[in-house]
Every structure is written in structure tokens, then in C-alpha cells.
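pipeline/complex-builder :: batch 7 item 3
reading input block
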Amino acid sequence: MSETSQALEQLTRQEYQAGFVTDVESEQIPRGLSEDVIRLISRKKDEPEFMLEWRLKAYRHWLTMREPTWASVKYSKIDYQDIIYYSAPKKRQALNSLDEVDPEILKTYAKLGIPLEEQKRLQNVAVDAVFDSVSVATTFKEKLGAMGVIFCSFSEAVRNHPELVKKHLGSVVPYTDNYFAALNAAVFSDGSFCFVPKGVRCPMELSTYFRINAAETGQFERTLIVAEEGSYVSYLEGCTAPMRDKNQLHAAVVELVALDRAQIKYSTVQNWYPGDREGRGGIYNFVTKRGLCAGYRSKISWTQVETGSAITWKYPSCILKGDESVGEFYSVAVTNHRQQADTGTKMIHLGKNTRSTIISKGISAGRGQNTYRGLVKVQKGAQGARNYTQCDSLLIGSQCGAHTVPYIEVRNNTAQVEHEASTSKIGEDQLFYCRSRGIPEEDAVSMIVNGFCRKVFKELPMEFAVEAQKLLMVSLEGSVG
Amino acid sequence: MSGEPAFVAAARQSGAAAFQALGGLPTTRQEAWRWTNVQPLGRIPFDAPAPGGGAADLGALQLAPGTVRLAFIDGRWSAAHSSVGALPAGVRLRSLQQALRDDPAAVEALLGQVARAEEHPFTALNAAHLLDGAVLEIDAGVTAPSPIELVFAQRAASPATTHPRVLIRLGAGARAQVAELYAALSTGAYLTNAVTEVSLGEGAELEHAKLQMEGDGGYHVGTLWAAQSRASHLRSHVFSLGALLARSEVSARFDGEGGRCELNGLYVGQGQQHLDHHTSLDHKSPGCTSREVYKGILDGRSRGVFTGAVRVREGAQKTDASQSNKALLLSEDASAEATPQLQIFADDVKCAHGAAVGQLDDQALFYLRSRGIPLPQARALLTRAFAEEVVRGVSVAPWQRRIEAVLARKLGGEVRA
Amino acid sequence: MTATAAMLEIKDLHAKVGEKEILKGINLTVRPGEIHAIMGPNGSGKSTLSQVLAGRETFEVTSGQVLYQGQDLMALSPEDRATAGIFLAFQYPVEIPGVGNMHFLRTALNAVRRKHGEEEVDAMDFLSLIKEKMKLVEMDQAFMNRSLNEGFSGGEKKRNEILQMAVLDPKLAILDETDSGLDIDALRIVAAGVNGLRRKDRAMLVITHYQRLLEYIVPDFVHVIAGGRIVKSGDRSLALELEQKGYAWVDAQVAGAPAPGARP
């Protein structure tokens, strides 16, 4: 074994930290999917009529669709009737105060490093904690409310702000968009809703922590963020799940709408259970995320650190409709053991003088397969469009794979589109250099990998950059079999 | 066909069967054909043009005398336009028909060895319609006289298809420079469906150029399959300058260590041309180097497509692969698609690719104009300069001159001496 | 000579890479405060010697012994050798994108401090520490903010090596062809930096192909290495003789029995 392999073998022996299960009573509905299940879900959530109608339309459409297949991702067939579509912790209240939340759940989030109690909470971050399919707590609601910022669970938004939801829901990802979007539209459980009014710069980070706890459930959350003219919001999504033998499905939909001069920053630190070393269990992460830069000079940035899930299949995208709008995508995706990731972005240039930047860093280790699949499309009317893409892959060990499949489609001759990709491994020379300066192997690998990801980590909100770095090293554990 | 060896009929049969099995002509729903709609090709009969029609005049092609050359009119070898002369020992150049008569065993050893008809509908179609083509064999250690030209000229009197099959084998340490020139004598519609199979022995070196200068009404599908042994070197150039719709493919495979492969391409589209290029490099063995540079210049309403797949297999350590595709869009209605792909299964490798689509550099244009050069000329100059990198990569002077002449016609600007 | 304990004792060192033996019995003793120059033609093994001393695992030591401050050096990993006070200034310093120069150096310094039970340095203190040292090699702040050696010219890379040496404060510095690829100005700065770091308790091994560097960094001893052995030793006049007569002169001198490289 080479120097590098030995260093990594040592480095990567830790267990998935968030793999514990919380003992809490849950209310669940029988497994399986049908119109009755959907009506039941809608009833349990006390939804207005329009919402149920929308769900049913989506469900009927889903029935006519076929599950897509991608060459690079292999997984065993999902039995959609074998999933429980609703599970909520039993003590469901109006949740006006944290006192009403099951202490076990509070302990869970504390264990994950996201304390919800008043004294211990993260000061500059408002948290919406979603446990299984249900939002259990949202901090700082009043403070935000005073500025006109609405940050609450999606279910609550449907009940309290139906006009807003009606206006924007499905406007960026209609349920006809793809198979999983249709499924999500039919059975979505909860998620976060955020609305920032004109001219308001949201004073704190908003974040949602999704935690899948119950076994054999699917998580279908729906997030909608609307930033009105001249507003700014930075949002972070974190995800964890316990270790289990069977795969669980996570099919989420995120819609972002940015109006004139508005800016939305959406960061994800994803640490779903990746499955064990042999590839058993693990979350199937099939997500549709899309941002519409509707307004003039609007800007949407996606930053993601994906280290978990057995299979990741997501392409956060930006539709650059407004003139001079900007789309950005920064990503670090790690695949280790037998993980597979097919992820990337789509930047669709429609308006004039639009700009997009894509920085994708893939790290493959173990037998992981990491594919970047991106699309940069410049439509005919997109005068002066500019794109710069950089995809780099780092291979650790000789049994993993790194693949890059960018699609570039240009229909306007005033556009400039540039794409660069490179693949490398951690050089023996680089490792030796660090060691010859007294830096132990493990730290050297950590330093080099972090250096590799730096451009992306720089984009994360400060509070989470450190967590992301730690997560990165944890996820590279056991990277050489 | 009477007197024909049995294996030829067998090849035709399996070709036809493969074409059926693959579903006939590909559709745009298939990933590899996503951008190119080949349905118009279906309207052209796949049968060969009728023989006869009197002597053809290839004067317009300005073929230099004294060059070793096999010429084909409407897919059939024409002695009158060929000039082989006395070849040195160890070099055998014959038309396919000739080789089948004189040395069928040699043909059998080569036919279908590198090309994979079962994977590719047009290769299957070519096999199904085997008629003529060329067979070039160079024995170990022999350097062939240079250059060798294969000229495929179409009368295009009525819609028909030719399916030339070119077989090239270089023994260990052999060297050659071969060009395939495709041109038409009229603007009628026709289809050229050419397949070239190249097999390079250990340490052999081949420079191969395809000069696609088909007629304005022509359709061209040309596929080059190459298998490289240890330490061999392939330099392939593809110049896509003619045809209404053209698809050029180069598929190279490293069967042994230490090989080197350079794939260069230039496509210049005008009017309604649709020029599609597909390269596929299989780094099956360790220690091989590949370099790809494909450039496109698209004007009018033309479209240029480039898909470059590089695959580095498990165990192919010390692979060094780089790929670059640049497209220049000169008009509002021109468009370009690029999909450079990397599939990497080994870690001790150096792989990179780059793709860019854009327009002429404003600053450079301004600089030329500030020196008194009028805008149209300045644009032409910069556009020619963009193409130069690929043209200069061709080491055979007569080929370069031919390409330059066509570029001058299409792009304006000076013809460099 | 006073009986100062040797800092480095190399006894009959043999090393190979793959199947090829490169070092064929090196003998050398270096005491604190001394500067030893090692000169030799290409392929003589001089770079191999420096890499073996630093602990590069591509080279396998087949026999012989190296004692550093009385301890078996070969038993230590590269990082342990570094924290024990050995510094190798590389001939071709590597680039590590995304890893800032400042961050790298501070991490290395803290590794040394940790080893000695000293308190680690925080970013602010490190900044002041390093400002001083940067003057020694005429480097400005801007470099420190860049990624390790990324985009540095040859001269800048070498100066960065000497800067690191200044910060890490080693006992034994091995300069591997520090002068290769440098123009006169860069050479002057690098040499000045090295001279500024001379100390009674520090020893240096200056490996070079040309005599030129030794005009600036005057050695106490000069050893000529050829065919994997030290074939001739002397004082600095040996370097001048070598410059005039060339390496072929050495080969002629040495044809037959190798001269002992160790000092009496």
C-alpha cells in the first residue's frame, strides 16, 4: 500500500456520528400510497381545499409518469407501496413554545449540535427543526416577524399565508417537472417557508434541520423561499438520519424566487446516512432544487457540501430570466465506500447580460462513484451571457471513480462560456512536503483536501464552514478498503 | 457477387442484422445522437450509385501528380485516376476489390477486427453494403512513401450511398501518412457512409487526415476505429468543411502501455450546415497519453456539435489525458454544443478537459482596426488565426495547402504560403 | 579539535530506489556550527542523499547507519525528523492549491511546538513573528496570502523555502540545490537569507552542482560525491579546484579505491 493509502486508512475509521435513534412515540399512517393516503395526510395537516386539490392533481399526474433511469447511478428498485408517507412525533401541539416539544427531540437536536433551548441556541441563526415529517420548533419567529420576515414551517404557511403559498408554489418546479417532483407534490409532509418583504435584509441566517428518525418512512419535504425586491436572505439546510439497514427515500423539492435586485443564498450541508461499507442501507437522496432569478439583477447562490446519502441525485439550478441576473453554484461532493453521486447544476441563461459561475469539487474514495453532470444553456435571446465552470475531481485510492459530464449548449453568439475540468490524486510529493515540515500524515491529508475544497467552503456561512470541514473529514473515514 | 470469398457475404449479413438489432437509423432520443437528426439520411437510398456515366473529371480537385493515390468515383475504384506506381517492399496498397481477389486472407484478417458493427448503426450499415474501399498494409519496420492519398469523389448525379471501407494495418515500427479526401463533383444529394479501421503494431506511427470536403448537398458519416498496440502513436486530423450534415467519429483504444494518441479537428460551418463530431478514447492500458484539440467556427445558421468521451479504466495508472474544444460563433443564428466527458476509474492519472464557446476578442479586433485594418478583414484574420492551431498540426504540406485553400474560400483572409 | 558531539553521523549508508542502488556507502560527520558543501555531477546521488535524510519512502536504505544527535534517524518518520529539527529545502518545492502559505507555515510551526510541549501560536502572533522573518528573504506580505507556492517563480519558491527555515528554526538544514534555476539577484537574496541563519548550534548541508553558490555561502568543508560515494573531501579550495578542472578530474583521481569521506 502506498504512503497515501496508509495515511488514509488511519485517518478514516470513525463511525457515522449521527446514527443514533431517538425514542419517541410517533403517529404514523399505514404504509402505501393512494388518493386516500393523500387525503389523510392533508386532513392531518388541516390544509385548505386548494392544497388538497393540488396534491391530488400531482398524484394523478405521477401515476402517468415513469421513473427515470440514469446510466451512472445504480440502485435497487424502490417499492412505492412499501413506504410510510407520514410519521409525526405524537405530542403535536400548536408549538408556541419549546416547552411543548418532547424533551427527547430537544435532546436529539442538541446531540447533533443544534441546541434549540433559549440559553444554548445559536445566536445568529434562526432554526426550524423538522423531525421526521413535522416541524417541531422554530426559533426567533417573533423577532423576524417584527421585520416582516415570515419564517415558519411550510404547513403553517399553508394555513396562515395561503395567498403567498398559492402564488408561488409550483411556479419554479411544477409538479409536471419530473417524476420525483410529482411524487413530492402529492405527498410532501413539511418543510420551510420563508418570505422576505421588499427591501429587507434578513438579519440572521435562517436554517432548517431535517432529521429522519422513524424507520421505513420517506421524507418528502417542500421548501419555498420568496425574496421580494431588494431583499436578502441566507438560508442553510442541514440533514441527518439514523443508521439503518434498509434504504430510505428522500425526495425533496426546493423552490426559490428572487425578484428585482433580491438575493438568496441557499447552503446545504448534507449528511444523510451513507450506508455501511458494503453499501447496505443509506438514504436515497433525489432532490429537485431550482431558483428563479425573476427580477432584474437578482441573484441566487447554491452552496452545497454533500457527504452523506447512499445515492445523491440532485441538480440545483438557476433560471436566469431577469436581465443582469446572476446564478452561482459551489459544491463539494464526497463519495466513499459504495456511495454514488450524480450531481451538478443547470444554469439556464434567458435574460440579457446574465452571469453564472459553477465551481464543483468532487472527492471520490473507497469504491465511491462521483459524477458531475451539468448543463449550461444559453438561449437565443440571452445576449452577453457569461459562464465560467470549473470541475475538479480528487481521487483517493484506486477503486473509486470520478466522472465529469458537462453539457454546453449555446444559441447566442455574444455569449462566452468556459469550462475546465481536471482530475488528480493527492500527490506523494505534496504529502511528503507537509510531513517534512513536521505535519503528521493525517493532518497533511486533511490540509490538502481542505485546500482542494477551499473555494467552496469560502461560500458557506461562517457558522457552518467549520462544521462542513469536520463533516468532510468524517465522511472520508475508511476511504481505503 | 460471384467469385467473392464467403467471409464477405457473411460480413454483409451480420452487418444487416446488426443494423436491424440497433433499431436502424438512430434518433435524437439516443444520447449519442442527441443533437443530430439523421432522419433526412433515411430519404436517400442506401444502395450504391449505378456504375457508368462516362469518365469523370477530377480536375477541380487539383490532385497533385506523383502522389501515391487510390481514387474512387462513386465508391468504385478508378484506375484512370489512381497512381500507385512501384511501391517499396513491405508496402501494399490496393483497392478492396483488388485485395479480395489477390489476397483474401489478408483482408479477412483485417475486416471487422477493430470496427464494432454491433455497437454502431452506421458501421453496421457500411458492413451490410460492403463493395469497395482500400487496403493498406505496411510491414514491420517499413516507412511508407509519403503521403498516401485515398480520394473518394461523388458524381452525385442522383441520390445514392457509397460505403467505402478502408483497412489500414501498420506492423511493428512501421510508419505512414495517409489522407482520405471526400469531395463531390456537383451539388446533388448523396450520402457517404465511410468506415476506416486502423490497427497499429507496437511502436508504429500513423498520421491520418480526413479531409471532408463533400458537396453542398451531400451527407457524410465517417467513422474511424483505431486499436493501438504498445508504444504506438496515432495522430488523427479531421477537417469538416463540407456537406449539409456531417458526423465524424474517431474511436481509439489503447491496447498496450505507453501509447500516444492525438486527435485534432476543425469544423467550419456556414449556411445551414450541421457538423457533428464525436471522439471516444479508451485508456485501457496504463502509461498512455492522449491529446485532443477540436475547434469549430460557426457562421450563418450552422450548428457545431462536439462530444468527447475519455474513459480511463481501472488500473490505467499514469494516464495523461487532456482535451480541449473551442467554438467560435460568428453570427446570431449559429449555435454550438459541447459535451466533453471524463470517466475515470484510476487515481494516479492526470486528466483535464476544457471547453469554451465564444466570439472574437473585442480587444484584438480593436487593435487590428487601430492599425488601419477594416473590420471585415480584421474579423477574417482573427478567425483564420483561430483555425491555425489545428491546421498547423498537419505535417504534410500538400494537405495543409488544400485545407488553407478551402478555408480561404469559406472564411476569407489570406492563404498562407 | 574540541570533542563536540557530532550532530549527524552517516556511516556506510547504502540506499536504492526500485532495483537501482544509488548510495553506495556514504560516510560523513557533521558537527554543530559547521557548513558542509556536497558537490557532484548529475546522477551522483546528492539529491538522493538529501531525500533519504529527510525520510522519503521511495528510497530504501539497504545498509549503514545514520545517527542524528546520537539517535537512529532511520527509525523516525518524516514528520518526526522535522519536529526533531531537520529541515530540507527542496530543489523543486511542490505547489498545494487552496492551502495558504501562512496557514501552512503556522501549522508546521505548531507541530514543532507541540512536540516540544510549547504553546501553539495563534494567527495574530504568527503574523508578527513572520513579518520579521520575511524581511530576511525580502518577501512581501502578498505572498503569504497566496496558496502554497502556487504561481511562484523559481526564485520565489526558493526564498519561500528559506523563509520556512527561518520560522521553523531547525538544527540541521539540508539545502538541496537551492541555487538551481536562480539568477544572480535571487541567488544573492537566498544566500543572504541562509547566511543570516548561521548559528553555533546549527549545521548545514549545502548540496550544489556549481561552485557559484559557495562564493556566497562559504563552507567549512567540501565533499565531492560521485557514483554514490564521497570520493574526496577538503576545504573550500577543493570547490575552486573542481570548478577549474571539472568533474572528470575527480573521476580520474578516484579511479580505483574510493577516498574516505569521514573527517578524522
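note: Chain B touches chain A at residues 314-315, 317, 327, 329-332, 334-359 (CB under 8 Å).
queue -> next item
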